[in-house]
Amino acid sequence: MRTGKRRARNMTTVDCSGIDLGSNEDDMRVWTADVSWVIDDDQLVDAEDLAAHVAAIGQMMLGVPVEQLAERIAAQLANQSVFRSVTVTVHMHWKAPLRTFEQLSATVTANRQSSANPSAAAANTGGEESASTHDGALPVDPSYRDAVISLHSAALNAEQLFREVIVTLDSMPGNQVDGISPLYFVGSLNGTDGHAAVIKLSTAMGVRQLNQVLDALHTTHEGAVQLSVVATGKVGDESLHAPKGAADHHLGAAVLEPWAAMDPNASYNGDPLAYLLAMAPDSAQVGVESERWVMGGGR
């Protein structure tokens, strides 16, 4: 892996190339990624942590088309407010010359608060190249919905567990993580302190199917992380409601605090999150711990 930096107009561009995403021994394919990101001069991103995060996404999705993998990585990185923009190029090449071309690549650029804009190229290292570019916003499928999912864990490695859950959900067909909250510390009167976060997921799954997926992830991690669909709504709508058929219940500060930080203008069952948070009796037990935890960047 190689890194480099360039500065201009109070912004820094960082290039990180040669990130190993893994290989497939059966058909001799190898995947690598190059990532370039633009940040303000007063921001810091740990390149090693970013590379590890990118590698984790890649390893979960080995075998999918390179343009889809590049788009997923770019979309998830662009969810982090520290980035002005990110550009991801995924390369897939064969270990032996078994094909008519040696390498396939796709490049995707995603800007802060915008959808990924993919530009894919199938490259023949012998000199021939073809490319296709898809400009403009991605179409919204009316069968999709937004879901806010809460994550809570008392485990010491809660951050890692949350990252693994997010990568898994984002890698599933029909899913895209559109928002990730800061990480919050949650105190407890009985001494079982923990951590909490929320994500916003654009998904084609119904609530029942999504809950089944969350139950499976809960079991996979031996019960160490609690996951719940707390609200759903139309894609892009900031007015969300409790899932249809769910019992009427009040959300605690461990959900409201991170949700309000991720989406300050959102409302739940018609009430603004700021109002609900002001009324939450446990708000003093919840405090932000890290805004860059997904990248492993500390506070």
TrEMBL record:
Where on the tree of life does the source sit, at the highest rank?
Answer: Bacteria
Q: Kindly indicate whether the keyword Transferase belongs to this entry.
A: yes
Q: Residue spans with biased composition (Low complexity)?
A: 110-124
Enumerate the residue ranges of region (Disordered).
Answer: 109-138
Q: Name one GO molecular function term.
A: kinase activity
UniProt keywords (A-Z) are: Kinase, Lyase, Transferase
Is this entry keyworded Transferase?
yes
> Recorded E.C. number(s)?
2.7.6.3, 4.1.2.25
Name this polypeptide is given: 2-amino-4-hydroxy-6-hydroxymethyldihydropteridine diphosphokinase
| Species, as recorded | Bifidobacterium animalis subsp. lactis CNCM I-2494
